[in-house]
TrEMBL record:
One of its GO terms (biological process) is protein localization to plasma membrane. This is EFR3 homolog A (S. cerevisiae). InterPro entries: ARM-type_fold, EFR3_Homologs. GO terms for cellular component: plasma membrane.
Length: 768
């Protein structure tokens, strides 16, 4: 075997080195081996050994033991390196695999002897691998019964780091024969020779070994193993390894959080290496499995409400929740890292896939048991999926905005932006920033403030493309609407206003031509008018925050337009606010101890931006200033009529409350219906004037309003009509009655109602 290990000298002493004093059976065994292994065994000497074994059967055990010793010491590596012209049809290696594997697990009490035995076993397995992997007739070596011995033998020595440190101080020869390094070399060689159909059999024993030795927590060795695997196998086989790890994660779906987190982190390492190449059809499978385990982790954390409320298990519950957070963070990191390393065309597909998993009211795209996890669990799922979307979209550079924000992605994203949770709205805005910002300007716009010199920021900008112009004509009103409605949420904090400012600035940089800039000015003035009117009784902090947002954005826009009169008007208003109303500027209102007023003085026009002054400043070719006179009104959609901003659990109860509260009491009706009320109902004085005024407003709107606003309004009307017709058809079109009964669902329970034959109405042609 070409190793220094000599079992005979260890036990026979000095006399064992003298040939004439050796036992006869050993001399006969020695004689059958030729000096050159290529010559083969000496046939005549083999016949002598056979005759001796038959004559002295009591020596058979000793002959066999010494023969195995000579084979392990002198032959196998040399035998493995012999190149054969013709393959062997009868040779099998089961015995050698078993014996060498046993040597790899040696636990001899002498450390040096133990190491040498292990090295001999590893070299033996290496010889088997070299002799068989390229032999088409020896494909049996890749079968599970052999891989289950080969792979664990190598891993057992690789994980023994103490041996590596112990023998690192020995001579150079011993360093080369360190069991850990030799086992790793053999492991790499085996994986490098694995063909397409053998990958599963080679990887499965690794997973089983990590399970049996509890090496997922901590998972340093597991991560190291799979790094070796991914860098040793052929690149086109990477998806086999990923599928194996995903399947193993499913197997351990009910294991402890730390074990699941360890497997997910190993998956992160595998996909990080595989993402640099091609991983075939497993892209969506990776994300689907990870999202499934993300939902399961939330179920485990929040599903058992009775146990969470138990005082006796409070500490254990907190520990479990913190461990589940480790799993969830590992999954999000894996999703984000993997998605962030995919090419853009695959990344767009993954973005759509993840968005389809985010629970949004009104869309049947989710499979969450919201009754079980409740509002908090639903929110957690939404927040984590959006966080993973942030990582996937980071660095995403779409050529056109239609490709980055398709309708199927934009609509659910905007729906989430209107939910009554500031954290979710922040995540949505960050996703929009990642997609819209194609020139990496976001870092320069960080923080809401009055920027004194926008030119010093050196903002990168290109001329807006025709495709992006079309995108803004189709979807610009949708973006404006959600910014407008998102500004007045009562739970907004400074970060919300910062992200809204950045969103407006990025739209200006990436998507704004002259027409879009006019719309953005109209949006800003509409926000200012909404604050001054205060029809919704917003908190003073929100009102001042919106005013500060408008000031910061118009200051930025005026310098981007580079129109001197426009800049002068904006600067004048900001100076007046600095003197008389600093709480209307971002540098003051977002301070911790900013003193807010009790009311805003609408009559002090110097503190507010005036539409007439802005229109006069923009009276230059290219700007349609007539549109500034048309107040911006967000388009009304079916979304506003649905309680989709509430959580799933609150939705049903909210609808029930509305229905119950909308039905007045009969006593109230009796009190209200009087002669005066009837007289008022009959009197039509003034109705004609109201109708004429309404018609005038409609005509004015269709004459002066932008085309995209009119189109969006008509589209929303058409969608409402379609929904109403669908409801009517659902109520009127029923299946014909049947004597066997019909099924009706009431409160989630099926009820059967039978109709007697004599009560059924048949067509005349069916009756005789």
């Amino acid at each position: 075997f070409a190793v220094e290990l000599d079992f005979f000298s260890l036990f026979t002493g000095v006399c064992g080195c003298c040939g004439p004093l050796r036992p006869r059976y050993k001399r006969l065994v020695d004689n059958i081996f030729p000096e050159d292994p290529k010559d083969g065994l000496v046939k005549s000497d083999m016949e002598k050994l056979t005759f001796y074994a038959v004559s002295a059967p009591e020596k058979l055990d000793r002959i066999g033991a010494y023969l195995a010793e000579r084979l392990s010491r002198d032959v196998f590596v040399k035998f493995a390196n012999i190149e054969e012209d013709t393959p062997s049809y009868h040779r099998r290696y089961d015995f050698f695999v078993s014996q060498f594997s046993a040597m790899c697990h040696s636990t001899h009490e002498d450390p040096e002897t133990c190491s040498r035995i292990r090295v001999a076993g590893i070299k033996g397995l290496q010889g088997v691998v070299r002799k068989t992997v390229n032999d088409e007739l020896q494909a049996i070596i890749w079968e599970p019964q052999h891989m289950d011995k080969l792979i664990p033998s190598m891993l057992f020595n690789m994980q023994d780091n103490e041996d590596s440190e112990r023998y690192s101080t020995h001579t150079h020869t011993l360093e080369k024969e360190n069991p850990a390094s030799l086992a790793e070399s053999c492991f790499r060689e085996l994986l490098g020779r694995a063909a397409y159909g053998n990958m599963n059999n080679a990887v499965h024993p690794v997973l089983v070994h990590l399970d049996n030795h509890r090496l997922w927590d901590p998972n340093d060795f597991a991560v190291s193993c799979f790094r070796i695997i991914m860098y040793s196998i052929q690149a086109q086989h990477s998806h086999h390894v990923i599928q194996q790890v995903l399947s193993h994660l499913d197997t351990h779906s009910k294991n402890t959080p730390r074990v699941r987190a360890g497997i997910v982190q190993v998956l992160l390492e595998t996909v990080a290496i595989a993402a640099k190449g091609s991983i075939g059809p497993t892209v969506l499978e990776v994300f689907n499995t990870l999202l499934k385990h993300l939902r399961m982790s939330v179920d485990f954390e929040l599903g058992d409400g009775s146990r969470r409320n138990s005082a006796s298990s409070l500490s254990s519950t907190r520990t479990k929740e913190s461990e589940e957070r480790i799993v969830q963070n590992a999954i999000i990191q894996t999703i984000g890292f993997f998605g962030g390393n995919l090419p853009d065309y695959q990344r767009a597909e993954v973005m759509m896939f993840i968005m389809g998993k985010v629970p949004v009211y009104g869309t049947p795209c989710h499979t969450l048991d919201t009754v079980k996890i409740g509002h908090q669990g639903t929110k957690r799922i939404q927040a984590m999926l959006l966080s993973s979307l942030i990582m996937v979209t980071s660095g995403f550079k779409c050529k056109t905005m239609c490709a980055g924000l398709p309708v199927a992605f934009l609509e659910p994203l905007c729906s989430i932006s209107l939910m009554e949770d500031s954290e979710l709205r922040q995540l949505v805005l960050e996703i929009l920033h990642n997609i819209i910002d194609r020139h990496d300007n976001r870092a320069k716009l960080r923080g809401i403030r009055i920027i004194p010199n926008v030119a010093a920021l050196k903002i990168k900008r290109e001329k807006i493309s025709k495709q992006d112009v079309v995108f803004m004509k189709k979807h610009g009103q949708q973006l404006y609407r959600h910014i407008y409605l998102g500004c007045k949420e009562e739970d907004n904090v400074e970060k919300n206003f910062e992200l809204l400012f950045t969103a407006l600035a990025l739209i200006t940089i990436e998507l704004a031509n002259e027409e879009v800039m006019i719309d953005l000015i109209r949006l800003s003035i509409a926000l200012q008018d909404m604050v001054l009117a205060n029809e919704e009784n917003m908190p003073m902090f929100i009102r001042c925050g919106i005013m500060a947002l408008v000031a910061a954005y118009l200051n930025f826009l005026s310098q981007m337009i580079a129109n001197p009169p426009f800049c002068q008007h904006v600067s004048k208003v900001i100076e007046m606010r600095n003197l008389d109303a600093p709480y209307l500027l971002p540098e003051h209102v977002f301070r911790e101890k900013c003193v807010l007023p009790d009311a805003l003085d609408r009559d002090d026009v110097g503190l507010y931006f005036q539409t007439a002054d802005l229109a006069e400043a923009l009276s230059v070719p290219g700007y349609n200033v007539e549109r500034l006179a048309i107040p911006y009104i967000p388009q009304v959609t079916e979304e506003d009529r649905l309680p989709r901003r509430k959580s799933f659990v609150d939705t049903i109860s909210l609808q029930v409350d509305i229905l119950s509260n909308s039905l007045p009491d009969q006593s109230q009706l009796a009190e209200e219906i009087t002669f005066e009320t009837l007289k008022k109902a009959i009197d039509t004085t003034g109705l004609e004037e109201q109708e004429r005024e309404r018609r005038r407003q409609v005509m004015e709107k269709f004459q002066k309003a932008p085309f995209e606003e009119i189109a969006a309004h008509c589209e929303s009307k058409a969608n409402m009509l379609h929904d109403r017709l669908a409801q009517i058809f659902e109520l009127t079109i029923r299946p014909p009655p049947s004597p066997s009964g019909t099924v009706t669902v009431t409160s989630g329970h099926a009820q059967y109602q039978s109709v007697p034959v004599y009560e059924m109405k048949f067509p005349d042609l069916c009756v005789y």
